[in-house]
Amino acid sequence: MLRIELEPRATASHFMRWGAPLLALLLTVLVIAPILALAGLPPLETLRIFFLSPLSSLNGLSEWLLKASPLILIALGLTVGFRANVWNIGAEGMYTIGAICAGWLALRYGDAGAHFWLLPAMMLAGALGGAAWAAIPAFLKTTANTSEILVSLMLNYVAALLLSYLVNGPMQDPQGLNYPQTALFEPSAMFSTPFAGLRINASMFITLVAVPLAWLLLERSFLGFQLSVSGAAPAAARYAGFSQTRLTWISLSISGATAGLAGMMEAAGPLGQLTPVISPGYGFAAIIVAFIGRLRPVGVVFGGLLLSLLYLGGEAVQMSLNVPASLSRCVQGTLLFFLLAGDVLILYRLRLRSP
Amino acid sequence: MALGLDVAPDLDVASRLELRRITKRYGGLTANDAVSLSVAPGEIHAVLGENGAGKSTLMKIIYGAIQPDEGEIFWEGENVVMSSPAVARRLGVSMVYQHFSLFETVSVVENIVLTSPGRFNLPALAMRIKELGERYGLPVDPYRLLHHLSVGERQRVEILRCLLQSPKLLILDEPTSVLTPPAARRLFEVLRTLAAAGCSIVYISHKLEEIRDLCDNATVLRAGKVVSTARPKEVSAADLARMMVGTAIAAVARAVAPPDPEQAPRLEVRRLSTSSEGPFGVTLRDIGLSVHGGEIVGIAGVSGNGQRELLAVLNGEIPCAQEAVLLSGEPVGHLGVAERRRRGLAFAPEERLGRGAVPDLTLEENGLLTGHRRGAVRGGLIDRGTTTLFAQNIIEQFDVHCRGPAATAASLSGGNLQKFIVGREIGLAPAVLIVSQPTWGVDVAAAAFLRQRLIDLSRHGAAVLVISEDLEELLEICDRIAVLYQGRLSAAMPRHATDIEQIGLLMAGVGLSAEAAA
Question: Which of A81, A153, A215, B176 could bond B184 through an S-S bridge, CB–CB 3.0 to 4.6 Å?
Answer without folding.
Answer: B176
